Amino acid sequence: MTDHIRIVEVGPRDGLQNEKLQVPTDLKIRFIEALAAAGLREIEATSFVSPKRVPQLADAEALWPMLSHGPAFSALTPNLKGLERAISLDVDRIAVFTAASETFTQKNINMSIDQSIETFAEMISIFRASRPTGFVRGYVSTAFECPYEGRIDPGQTVRVIEKLLNLGVDEVSIGDTIGVAAPPEVKSLTRLVLNVMSRGKITYHFHDTNGTAIANVAEAMEMGIESFDSSAGGLGGCPFAPGAGGNLATEDLVYFLERCGIPTHVDLYRLATSSLEILKVLGRSPCAKGQLARLSLSGTSPT
Amino acid sequence: MTDHIRIVEVGPRDGLQNEKLQVPTDLKIRFIEALAAAGLREIEATSFVSPKRVPQLADAEALWPMLSHGPAFSALTPNLKGLERAISLDVDRIAVFTAASETFTQKNINMSIDQSIETFAEMISIFRASRPTGFVRGYVSTAFECPYEGRIDPGQTVRVIEKLLNLGVDEVSIGDTIGVAAPPEVKSLTRLVLNVMSRGKITYHFHDTNGTAIANVAEAMEMGIESFDSSAGGLGGCPFAPGAGGNLATEDLVYFLERCGIPTHVDLYRLATSSLEILKVLGRSPCAKGQLARLSLSGTSPT
């Protein structure tokens, strides 16, 4: 097993876009600063998405300049307009978002997969011209199963990944958007994906709807994958995916890695407390196991 | 991978012994019947423990005769007195309970490990004389880590397992009592355990305090283990282990196995609803991922 695993914290973006309530910008900033203080080095901070479509992230322009230095911050740019907003703020790490499922892509971003790829081609060209050393992540959601289409053929997922690679993305984040996958599927898909790309460019984005996320991480690590998305407190889900549960909790991921002897340099207690204020505003109790365990051990009441 | 995994449901015993409130006997019966109706074939129904020590299970005599036929029911018999009570009710599947940690054993059952083994020798001899075809399970708790002593040397765990095997137990349930283990530890311990016993006699009993239980099950299955304890709704913990979280939820285990293509013959929705009445009485919300997912998908409010 490896001695280094990369953690990409997606709570501030993927965690909050799904919530009914809007979180005040200053609270988001405190959340992000707490995540950084806990030791997280890569944080997807927001999305330059249409404020009408995702009002929860309508404060992207206000939030971005307030991010302190330290971690590498990135932002989702779902379309050309979002990219222009990001470029005007000197965002140098962007992410584009498509899916392995045609139906999901249509419902989620109102394009076909091929249309999304054409859009990304133009966006990435503009971004590279503006930020030659910038970093581009490509998301492929519903990589295992779609809430509308059911199981996705791994070959289809690999074809979408190849289209993103042809655009020159720096990495691909492969998402189990509704959190249904189990390790044998992770093994099969990873084997196919490794035929078309190097393992260093692969990130897995697991949701923990059914409690399989850490087992999936373990399986992916067995296959040599060294990068995982997660969300503090297990915040989030997918606003357009019925039945989607929360993201893999960063607390669970960090606990697992540390217990496996892989140093994360993340302070698990600080991490466990980082989302408490947000959860309170959202009217939710902490539910991630690794978070509850830290809060319980520390004597802090989890509710 | 195997095509059959044995599930031993421990919710009615291990799940309820830790609760502050006492659950009425008729509610326990309905819970157990719901578990059986969901398709569970082996259920640890109660413990013939001192009513003073664990008042939650003081109704063992009232409960046992009311269990319907179908599943194989078992009961914990912590000492000679408990065994006598069990024998008088024709219980033919018993379990004895010791630990890999000397301190934990002392605090949990007020004996040294060797004293517990001596007691079990006498008990098993009496039980075999009374029920020649009876089944004896031996629990070894704190197999990975003890809340008092910290990490347990795997060699120590194996030595306790060997002592139980020398008494002629039919199986050993190896417990991560405080739910801290990660897959590499499961792999190391399993490798050592397989040197002293056949895999068919090994059951793992994981707690999910830190979200690693399913990953541990997956690792154990990779090593050929085919039997796991779990508790509906993730009920339970350990009354004498500070910081102990709930058992691995049967819902999570069943979901995982089914998604791996291993038939369990358990109705996941019926299982997910089986503990709801108990949880309500205990004033707790469902928290197991696999349970929440089923309830949410069915439109039943989980809270």
Q: Which sequence of SSEs, written as H and E, runs from N to C of chain A?
A: EHHEHEHEHHEEEHEHEHEHHHH
Tell me which protein chains meet in the greatest interface and how many residues each side has: A-B, 36 and 36 residues
- The Rg value of chain A, from CA coordinates, equals 18 Å
- Known CATH architecture of chain A: Alpha-Beta Barrel
User: Largest sheet of chain A, if any?
Assistant: 8 strands, parallel
Estimated structural class of chain A: alpha/beta
Low-confidence stretches of chain A: 238-244
> Beta fraction of the residues of chain A?
15-25%
CATH H-level homologous superfamily name of chain A? Aldolase class I
Describe it.
Two copies of one chain form a homodimer. By secondary structure, chain A is an alpha/beta fold. Chain A has a single domain (6-297), classed as Alpha-Beta Barrel (TIM Barrel). In chain A, 41% of the residues lie in helices and 16% in strands. Chain A contains 13 helices and ten strands. Chain A has an eight-stranded parallel beta sheet with strand order 1-10-9-8-5-4-3-2. In chain A, strands 6-7 form a two-stranded antiparallel sheet. In chain A, strand 2 (42-47), helix 3 (60-63) and strand 3 (72-76) form a beta-alpha-beta unit. Chain A binds chain B through residues 1, 179-185, 208-215, 217-219, 243, 245, 249, 252, 255-256, 259-261, 287-290, 292-293, 296-297, and chain B through 1, 179-185, 208-215, 217-219, 243, 245, 249, 252, 255-256, 259-261, 287-290, 292-293, 296-297.
